[in-house]
Specification:
single chain; 263 residues; mainly alpha
Length: 263
């Protein structure tokens, strides 16, 4: 099926492609991971936040949330039935993918980039204060307290707020596009890692796919493959919605690239 990008979507598409090109180029630059490290930690917060939201939606409680310096993370929840466990375990990787797709669609639908950044800052701060600090203290689970989680969450929230407050509208728009690309790319890379770790020949490492296996008895690799498939469906739907024309609606003008008018 032919896939066309509508004319009014081309400026946003150029911004997105530029953000994706920079993200990919940074993989081949020595020590460039230092530059992308904050974004990696951001994606981990979103991943763990997905678990937390899924737990709440299925009637469970969130006891704590930790993010480690190596960008791994853990979310501690009460354990419900099989459906609850499946939903909570699936909500990490897919939640990060959905969040990245949502950022793209918000920008495409002319939601101000500053508002998107402020909302993201508020989300990270809420996860940090409620599940990184308050819940472990309230429940007396002092071992769940992680100084790195608190510092990283606070710095990310401040950084996002600073970009929203002080950056120009075009820079803020590009930053949201770059953040969205980072969410999607890291979610897919994590799924690739889980896929290989789910192999019967791989060493047994605790992962969300292993949690699914423990809950259902179905091999972990099945869940890894299923998540990869769902992630690509989400991205396909998001990109098609991104490319649809928005005639008779206001077009986002705060973009670093302008689509020249036909003469």
């Amino acid at each position: 099926m032919k896939f066309n990008i509508s004319r009014d979507a081309r400026p946003q598409a150029m911004t997105l492609l530029f953000a994706a090109a920079i993200s990919i180029a940074l993989w081949f630059i020595p020590f460039a991971e230092i530059l992308t490290y904050p974004f990696r930690i951001f994606v981990t917060f979103i991943h763990e936040g997905g678990h937390a939201v899924a737990a709440l939606l299925t009637g469970n409680s969130v006891l704590g949330l930790n993010v480690a310096m190596n960008a791994s993370g853990e979310t501690y929840t009460t354990q419900g039935g099989v459906f609850s466990q499946l939903f909570v375990s699936s909500a990490g990787y897919l939640g990060a993918t959905i969040f990245g797709a949502l950022l793209l669609l918000l920008i495409r639908r002319t939601v101000a980039a500053r508002l998107v950044l402020l909302g993201s800052a508020g989300l990270i701060l809420a996860l940090t204060l409620i599940y990184g600090l308050w819940e472990p203290i309230w429940t007396g689970q002092w071992g769940m307290l992680s100084p790195f989680t608190l510092v990283a969450g606070a710095l990310l929230a401040v950084g996002l707020f600073a970009v929203a407050r002080f950056a120009s509208a075009r820079v803020a728009t590009f930053f949201v596009s770059f953040l969205a690309v980072q969410c999607v790319l890291h979610a897919l890379l994590d799924l690739k890692t889980v896929f290989f770790l789910s192999s019967p020949f791989a060493p047994r490492v605790p992962t969300d796919a292993v949690n699914m296996y423990n809950a259902t008895g179905i091999p972990a690799i099945f869940w890894a493959v299923m998540w990869v498939g769902i992630a690509f469906v989400i991205l396909s739907v998001a990109m098609r919605a991104y490319a649809v024309s928005r005639e008779h609606k206001t077009v986002q003008q705060d973009l670093p690239f302008d689509d020249p008018l036909d003469v």
